[in-house]
Amino acid sequence: MHTEVHDSRISYFHHKGLGFQRSENITWLLSHFHGEYFQLLMDDDLIAPEKIEMMVACYQECPTATLVTSYRQVIDGEGNKLPDLEETARLTDEPTLFRGAAVRQKLLQETLNFLGEPSTVLLRRDCQAQMLDIWTTYHANADLVTWLALCEQGDVVYLPQPLSFFRHHEGQDQNDLHTKFEGYCEWCHIFLHAIEQETDDEQKRAYWQRYFTHMEGLISILLPTLRTRLFAERESFAAREQMLALEGAIAQVQRHFEQVVFPAKETVFHPYSIHQEA
Fold first, then answer.
1. Which residues pair with 69 in a beta bridge?
2. Interatomic CA distance for residues 276 and 136, integer angstroms
3. Lowest mean pLDDT among 51-55, 175-179, 195-199
4. Cα separation of 116 and 47, whole Å?
5. Within 10 A of 133 (CB to CB), how many other CB atoms are there?
6. Domain map (residue ranges) of the chain
7. Amino acid 219: pLDDT
8. pLDDT value at position 143?
9. What are the Cα distances from residue 194, in Å, to 115, 137, 167, 208, 240?
10. Pick from 58, 142, 202, 236: CA 20 to 30 A from residue 163's CA?
């Protein structure tokens, strides 16, 4: 459905049946947008009026930046401010340019998306094709995988102002058990990919350890809960068979690596001023 709006620069499309976190909605948008910059805005989040202007200026001022983000204020279903979550805590009190490689390593070390949800980040057109490929492949962690990829290619600008407002409520997709299960599976894939790319043995061991942690979460926490729910809700025989097959496959991988134990090593996260002179 195409809805007319009173601004020639804006076209509004409503895709009935697609949830705000569904990858089909994002991939459609990525295939049709035009412009040098683009902003994804989830329908339960808000952005500040000055957000786009401030972030475009950051790209123009910092040619090495491939990602611009900011502090995001957590709000409830009614728009009231909430205390920070672990992942939303302010990173710095001043506009700061972070080395992309250090940010990527910290994301992997902490398994925490401190850069923000899609509504938080402003992106450039030149990442369109890569992002489309990622959102076609990933679902629960597609935004994080995008940030990881962009951190490999350049630096990150962080603004301390609350330029987006992340709505935290019970109805979010992140609270759905199947979404959590998918998220654990994707994290395992993310770490296997990071291990393939890593050349430092100590860092590779740290990634293996985090891989094992997520495997353990799948096997000991989520799989039994999902299985119990499937049986309780009397899902189809095919769904049960699929779950049992998946459980067996993951357990087999876990047994293969269960004797391996690696120590972790902390990441050093070094910022430098956004106004630093060459």
1. 158
2. 38
3. 175-179
4. 13
5. 15
6. 16-167, 173-257
7. 67
8. 95
9. 18, 16, 31, 9, 32
10. 142
For residue 262, the model assigns a pLDDT of 42
Tokens found for residue 226: 């999902």
> For 267, phi and psi rounded to 5 degrees?
-90, 135
- Asked if residue 226 has pLDDT above 80, the reply is no
Report CA torsion sign: 154, 62, 127, 74.
positive
On whether the pTM is more than 0.70, the answer is yes
Residue 121 vs residue 32, higher pLDDT: 121
Whole-number Å distance between alpha carbons of 170 and 168:
7
Residues paired with 72 in a beta bridge: 164
Q: Is 163:72 a contact under the CB 8 Å cutoff?
A: yes
Residues sharing a CB contact under 8 Å with residue 1, sequence separation 6 or more, in sequence order: 13, 14, 15, 16
- The overall longest dimension of the chain from CA atoms, in Å, is 65
From CA 59, how far away is CA 69, in angstroms rounded?
Answer: 11
Contact criterion met (CB below 8 Å) for 103 and 158: no
| DSSP bridge pairs for 166 | 74
Q: What residues are paired with 97 via a beta bridge?
A: 157, 272
pLDDT bracket for residue 259 (50, 70, 90): very low
At 25, the amino acid letter reads N
Q: How confident is the model at residue 278 (pLDDT cuts 50, 70, 90)?
A: very low
- Contact between residue 59 and residue 154 where contact means Cβ atoms under 8 Å apart: no
